[in-house]
From TrEMBL:
Belongs to the ABC transporter superfamily. One of its GO terms (molecular function) is ATP hydrolysis activity. One of its GO terms (cellular component) is plasma membrane. PROSITE patterns: ABC_TRANSPORTER_1, ABC_TRANSPORTER_2. It comes from Anaerotruncus massiliensis. Residues 2-241 form the ABC transporter domain. This is ATP-binding cassette domain-containing protein. Keywords: ATP-binding, Nucleotide-binding, Transport.
Length: 248
C-alpha cells in the first residue's frame, strides 16, 4: 500500500548539507505493523515526516495506493492526509481543550452536526478506554491516558494508516505495554496499517510483524521481524539487539 522508492532527503543548514535519508526503498503492506528502528539521528523522524507529507523529498517518490504523494495538491492532498493519522511522542494535545474537544478537532471541517461528532467521539473514546475522561483536560491525565487521547484523535477521520513517531518513549514500561496492546487491537479490529518509528527494540519485538533497520540515512536490513531478529545480518541490527559488535 505504501511504496518508498529511491527516497533521498537532504537538508541545507548553516554548516552545509545534511543527508538525512539516502536512496531509501521500502514497501509497507496493508495491515502490517511496520517498525522502523535506528539510533538517534539516523533519519527516522525525517522519514515519518516525508510519509505524512510534512516534508518534501529531495528526490525519489512515496506512493500511497499507487498515488505519488508529491503530485497531490489542494483537495486531493487534504483527502490523502485524512487517510493518514499521526501520533507523536509528546502527544501534541490542545491543553486548553477537553479530551472530547481534542478528539473532535479533526472532525470540525468534516461534520457540521454536533450530535454526529459527539457520537463519533464517544465511539473513539470507548475504543481507547477513556469514556469517563471525556470532559477532563489533558493536564488532568497521565502520560498513557494522554497518548490514548492522541490515538483516538488520530483515528477520528478513519485513516487507513497510523504513523506513530516514538509513541511510547515518554512512557514507563507498563504503560508502554498497554499502549502497544491498544495499537495491536486497533490494527486487528479496524485493519489500520501501523508504522512505528522507535529506537527501542522491545517495541518492535512486542508488536511489529515487519521491521526495517536504519543506520545513518540508509536501510541496512528489512523484512519479517522474527526472521531478522533470529538471524541479524547487519552490525546495526546486532547492536540494537544487544550483541557485541567488533569494531572494524
Ligand atoms: N530541518 C532540518 N534541518 C537540518 N537538518 C535536519 C533537519 N531535520 C533533521 N535534520 C538532520 O537530519 C538527520 C536525521 O534526523 P532525524 O530527526 O530524522 O533523526 P531521528 O532518527 O529521528 O533521530 P531521533 O531519534 O534523535 O529523533 C540528523 O542529522 C538531523 O540533524
Amino acid at each position: 500500500m505504501i511504496q518508498i522508492s529511491h527516497l533521498t532527503k537532504i537538508f541545507n543548514d548553516k554548516s552545509g548539507e545534511v543527508v538525512a535519508l539516502h536512496d531509501v526503498n521500502l514497501e509497507i503492506g496493508r495491515g502490517d505493523i511496520f517498525g522502523i528502528i535506528g539510533m538517534s539521528g539516523a533519519g527516522k523522524s525525517t522519514l515519518l515526516r516525508c510519509l505524512s507529507t510534512l516534508e518534501k523529498p529531495t528526490s525519489g517518490a512515496i506512493t500511497l495506493d499507487g498515488v505519488d504523494l508529491a503530485t497531490l495538491t489542494g483537495k486531493q492532498l487534504i483527502d490523502t492526509r485524512r487517510k493518514m493519522g499521526v501520533v507523536f511522542q509528546g502527544f501534541n494535545l490542545l491543553m486548553q481543550r477537553t479530551v472530547r474537544q481534542n478528539v473532535a478537532f479533526p472532525l470540525a471541517l468534516e461534520r457540521a452536526d454536533r450530535a454526529g461528532v459527539n457520537a463519533r467521539v464517544d465511539e473513539l473514546l470507548e475504543l481507547v478506554g477513556l469514556s469517563e475522561k471525556a470532559e477532563s483536560y489533558p493536564s488532568q491525565l497521565s502520560g498513557g491516558q494522554k497518548q490514548r487521547v492522541a490515538i483516538a484523535r488520530a483515528l477520528a477521520t478513519s485513516p487507513e494508516v497510523l504513523l506513530c513517531d516514538e509513541p511510547t518513549s515518554a512512557l514507563d514500561s507498563l504503560t508502554t505495554k498497554n499502549i502497544l496492546e491498544l495499537l495491536h487491537n486497533i490494527n486487528r479490529k479496524l485493519n489500520v496499517t501501523i508504522v512505528i518509528i522507535t529506537h527501542e527494540i522491545a517495541v518492535v519485538k512486542a508488536i511489529c510483524n515487519k521491521v526495517a533497520v536504519i543506520d545513518t540515512a540508509e536501510f541496512v536490513e528489512w523484512g519479517d521481524t522474527a526472521e531478522i531478529f533470529k538471524n541479524p545480518r547487519s552490525d546495526m541490527t546486532r547492536l540494537l539487539l544487544g550483541y557485541e559488535v567488533m569494531k572494524k
